[in-house]
Amino acid sequence: MLNTIDRTGKVLDLFTAETPEWGVTAVAARLHLPKSTTFDIMSSLAAIGLLQQTSGDRYRLGWRVLLISRRLMSSSCFNAHTTRHVAALAHQLSGVVTVGAWDGRGVVCIANASADRTDPIVTRGVHISGHTSALGKLLMAQQPWPTVEELIARNGLPRLTENSVVDVNILHAQLICARRDDVAIEHGETIPDQSCVAVGIHQRDHRAIAALSISAPTERLLNRREEYIRIARRTARSLVENAVPPH
Predict the structure, then answer these.
(1) Residue limits of the HTH iclR-type domain (predicted)?
(2) Which CATH number, 1.10.3720.10, 3.40.1060.10, 1.10.10.60, 1.10.10.10, labels domain 3-66?
(3) In this predicted model, what pLDDT tens digit does every residue of 232-243 receive, in sequence order?
């Protein structure tokens, strides 16, 4: 049963904006699965609406994925208010503001906004680099270290810039500090000359369900670091306190 669930997850992971359509043969080859097994998985997913058959043995994601996404957002503290609040803060600080959560494999973007159209924008639902981003460090710090080690063993610590942390011991020390202080900071690890600070978004049981980050040019963030941390924490509390309860 667990093996089937794992295979199903891997099949769904193949469907991206870059490769939105897959055939049974191609999926079987990519995942090193028997074609008959792959067919059974994909046809079963189509039967419950998570995939839709386009032609022959080719499939795309099904519309039920969107329905589940909407249910997830409406049952959490992240909704239209989150998007508006993030956009307003990005405009106020002339920076990039992002809310992300941990989905078991990495950081997934919930909301992202920038006051400058030239800044890189992360689409909601897209994975964000874990070990090089402040969001990633904050959220990875909430995981048991063996879980993080498994993730590193699977994905490595790829270098995105010359400042990216690629040493496991250094990352471990950073995560210990992030968990202790509920704040993570990175300087030019994801984008050169850009720095980022992230804090946890906590539920009433003090569990960090997500994180919020503020990104700005490194010199500005260094000069306003403590101010940005205070603003990020205040905003994180506001997102939870002002959330519209699900109906």
Answers:
(1) 2-63
(2) 1.10.10.10
(3) 999 998 888 765
